[in-house]
Amino acid sequence: MDRIQFYEIIYSIVKEIPVGYVMTYGQIAYLAGEPQYARMVGWAMFHAPKEWYLPCHRVVNSQGRLVPGWQEQKALLEKEGVTLKANGCVNMKLHQWQPADHE
DNA sequence: AGATTGACCAGAT
DNA sequence: TATCTGGCCAATC
Fold first, then answer.
1. CATH of segment(s) A3-95
2. Residue pair A91/A83 in contact by the 8 Å Cβ criterion
3. Could you say which DSSP state residue A49 is in?
4. Can you give the pTM of this predicted structure?
């Protein structure tokens, strides 16, 4: 798979994340077909053109931690209805979006 | 062209 | 449970 295609899939998945839900980099990479590309997901998010309007604030790491150096993300998630723990991490069990939920 | 870093993850200690 | 290490790919120095 071309890296470009991989990015395209990543962006597609991220754009499909509904309000009030979040996903992990690893999960996105997995859905994109390359579970090992978690780092590329994060890299792609940071370098994603704003014209894509990606809800990258709904993307967190496997621990539910928010993006380092981006305190605004916390406020954004709270405004979307995402409940954050006292330590500032997302309640993954409550907000981790699962595409195959109705499986 | 080689080495280092990065919005990560999983396993090991 | 918390911290460290190795590995992954791409971009930058």
1. 1.10.10.10
2. yes
3. -
4. 0.91
